[in-house]
Each structure stands twice: as C-alpha cells, then as structure tokens.
Design brief:
This protein is α/β, with parallel strands linked by helices and 430 residues long. Helices cover 45% and strands 11% of the residues. The structure holds S-adenosylmethionine.
Length: 430
C-alpha cells in the first residue's frame, strides 16, 4: 500500500483530489492499466517517466475523474442567470469551471439565447479531463444527459438522429456560443473579468485547503459584483465572498467596490424580501462553520438507488437497468426505484416498458409530479400526443396546489412553480 504513496502524492499535488485510502484500489487499478498502455514495468520506472514529462498523467486523471453531469442540472440555480444577465449592459462572460462533458455550459448558452443576450455573451467551459472536453466539443449526447426534469428546455436546441438509441446534436448556434479549454483549477492560470462562475460538484472531490485557494482565485477572476455558484451539496465558502441567500439557493458574490471596503456587519445572511437576487450584499459571515473535509468519494454504495446511479454514471446503462429491476423486485414499494428504472428504460429506448414503470410509480404515489412529467415526455416521444397532454395537465394541476417554492421530489431541486410553467408550455404544444 505504502509503495503507492509517491503516486498518490503526485496526484494530490496535481489535482487537489481528496484521495483517501478507500480510493486506493481504484487508483492502483487505473495506474496498472496506464503503465500497461505505456509499456512500463513497475511503479518506480513509471514515476520516473511521469517526472520527466515523457508520460503524461492525463489518462490516469481522466480515469479517476467523475464527470457525471446533465442538461439543466439543479435548474433553480440556473434561474440566477435569468435574474442577473438581463441587468448586465456590457459584454457578458460566463465560466463553467469543471464542466465535465459540457452540458452545463450549453445549458447556460440556451438560457442566454432565451433571454435575448446571446449576442453579447461568451461562455467558457473548462475541465481537467481531456476526455470529457473532447465529448463536450463533439456536442453529441445520449438520453442520459437529458434525464433532469428541466432538460425539456434543452430539447428545443437538440436534433436527434433516427438510430434506435438516438444521439442528440447541439444546435450550431448554441455550440458556437461556448468555448472549451483544458484548465486544471489547481495549477493553471484563470481567466479574468467573469460575470458569473459556475463551479458545481467539483469541490466535493477536493481537499479543504485546495478549495480555499481555488475560492480565493475565483474571487480574483470575477468582476466587481460578480457571482459564484456552487452546487447545493458543495461545502460552504466564507470570506472574501459575501454569502447571499436567494430563491435560487445560496450563492456567493464579490461585492461591488463601494461595499468591499465596508466592515462586515455582525448579523447573519437573511433571505431577500422578494423573489430576486438580494441587492449587492455586504460581506457577511458564512451560513455555517466550514464543514470537515469531504467524505471519501468512493465509499461503498449500499443504497440501491445510489448503486443504480453509480452504474449509470459509469456509462453501463444496461447493467444499471438490470440493477434497478432487481432492486425494485426486492423493494417493490419504493416509488423512487421504479422512477429511476423508468428513466433508464427511456434512455435504453424502451418506451413501453418505461411507461409501465411510470404507471407503477403512480400507483404507489399518484401525486408524483416527476412521474407524470416523464410519462408526458415518454408518451409524446411514442406518438401518443393526447396521453402526453393529459400527463402535462396533471403536472400543472399538481404544481398549482403546492406552495410555489416547494422543491419537487426526484426533481433535482426544481420547484413547483418552475415545473408547473414547464408543463404548461408542453401542454400547449400541438
Ligand atoms: C461531477 S463533474 C461536475 C460537472 C458539472 N459542473 C455539474 O455540476 O454537473 C466534476 C468535474 O470536475 C472536474 N475536476 C475535478 N478536479 C478538477 C481540477 N483540479 N481542475 C479542473 N477540473 C476538475 C472533473 O474532471 C469533472 O469533470
């Protein structure tokens, strides 16, 4: 085990990863494969190669990265852009840092277009994984990239081929708005004058001191008054950022110049009085003391939902589907398992079986907004326009009965208002 320590040290230094002993088997297996490919026998010789720069660490880093993402992930957070972008009168720079295969950056481009600011908006997507960037640049995706509840918004900008398992190509106008570049957040220089940085689901993999340093550098990369958005599951940040609680979740802000010199007020962050981004917030204390270093990333997966997701995220959708089928055979009363199974069946182009799975969710939970929503899209894809309309109508009615900001189960943070509006739009489509 200790033999591998020099490699772990190099990896930690290069990437900032929180690589604990629990990831050792994974690192070891990936390193052995990389050595095999390079035709190098033994770790010392390979380390020498790495240090001399003759063998890049790229492949190993690519293998260890978790590039899991999809269109309009955590859509409530993307709502911040709807609030902020129209108010910017100068050219706009958006950065998706740790963009993985690019769905987040393209979602930003779609929003910019919907908001009518695309002509003056530049979007940069960066990642450490060259394999992910290659996929991002190809701008071609499978159904799994559209599994989020808000991905309907992306579909209007995607063209599918007629293969049994279709591939979706991003519209050239959206594609042209985004540039992808390789950028290691730990070692590389950052772009400057960014209006909004999204860095979601990246810090969960990194060590605490590395996170603090990256946050400091993000602060420097923003314009005065610029925004940093992390995922809701990311560790919270403190100064120099001001923490602002909005209807889009907690976001971080570089204070405008006049406020940056003001001493931080003692009171905690309060919710803004209206559905808007809070006014330029004075520097405020973080909402909670910093959390301890993140949990090990590759902890054994006991929960069946997590196990199915891990298989799907790893790209083996058929195995994920089998695991989902087995899991709900053992626990037939868990609607979320049937729902996950349905989503996988959609991806595997098994529409009729997906519809059956969704009906099982609705038998267990007739008020499941997400089951009705997915039923609507699946029926429409299968040519049942009337059935789809009824399903979207049901979503609209269910959402109208819920408090507007209520997050919907299995909907990735999307609220009743948001999904209600989405369903209304779908319902009115011919
Ligand atoms: C789970 S994905 C997040 C994708 C997207 N931001 C989202 O939230 O859906 C995490 C990404 O962070 C990238 N990453 C991890 N460490 C990095 C580093 N040091 N520099 C740049 N990217 C990094 C990984 O390659 C991976 O693609």
């Amino acid at each position: 085990m200790t033999d591998w320590e020099p490699l772990l040290r190099r990896l930690r230094d290069r990437t900032g990863f929180a690589l604990g002993p629990e990831r050792m088997p994974e690192v070891e297996a990936a390193a052995r494969r990389a050595m095999g490919r390079a035709g190098v026998d033994g770790l010392p010789a390979w380390l020498e190669w790495l240090d001399s720069g003759r063998a890049p660490m790229t492949e190993l880093i690519d293998e260890l990265m978790v590039g899991e993402t999809y269109f309009f992930r955590e859509p409530a957070q993307l709502g911040l852009l709807e609030e902020v972008l129209p108010a910017i009168t100068t050219p706009i720079s958006l950065w998706s840092a740790g963009c993985a295969s690019g769905e987040e950056a393209y979602s930003m481009a779609i929003l910019a277009r919907d908001l009518g600011v695309a002509d003056r908006t530049r979007i940069l997507g960066t990642d450490i994984s060259r394999a992910s960037l290659e996929k991002a640049r190809s701008a071609r995706y499978g159904e799994w990239s559209l599994r989020g509840p808000a991905s309907l918004r992306a579909r209007a900008w995607l063209t599918s081929d007629s293969a049994p398992r279709p591939t979706y190509a991003v519209d050239p106008r959206i594609r042209g708005a985004v540039t992808f570049e390789h950028l290691n957040l730990v070692t590389d220089p950052y772009p400057s004058q960014q209006d909004v940085i999204f860095c979601r689901n990246v810090f969960i993999y990194l060590r605490q001191p590395v996170i603090a340093e990256i946050a400091r550098r993000f602060h420097g990369a923003l314009v005065d008054g610029g925004w940093l958005v992390l995922a809701s599951s990311d560790p919270p940040l403190g100064p120099p950022f001001a923490t602002v609680r909005t209807d889009y979740g907690i976001v971080y802000r570089r204070a405008p110049p006049a406020l940056r010199t003001a001493p931080p007020p003692p009171q905690p962050v309060r919710p803004p009085p209206r559905r808007a981004v809070a006014p330029p917030a004075p520097a405020a204390p973080p909402r909670a003391p910093p959390r301890p270093p993140p949990e090990p990333v590759a902890a054994p997966v006991a929960d069946p939902v997590a196990r199915v997701r891990a298989l799907a995220d790893g790209g083996d959708l058929a195995a994920a589907e089998r695991a989902a089928a087995e899991a709900h055979r053992l626990s037939p009363m868990r609607p979320e398992l049937h729902y996950l199974h349905a989503v996988l069946l959609v991806e595997l182009s098994q529409g009729p079986r997906a519809v059956e799975a969704l009906r099982r969710v609705l038998y267990l939970d007739p008020a499941s907004v997400m089951a009705w929503m997915t039923l609507g899209t699946t029926l429409r894809a299968g040519g049942d326009a009337a059935g789809a309309k009824r399903a979207f109508q049901r979503v609209r009615q269910l959402c109208a009965r819920l408090p507007p900001g209520e997050p919907i189960p299995m909907a990735d943070g999307a609220t009743a208002t948001y999904l209600g509006r989405l369903a209304e739009r779908e319902e009115s489509r011919p």
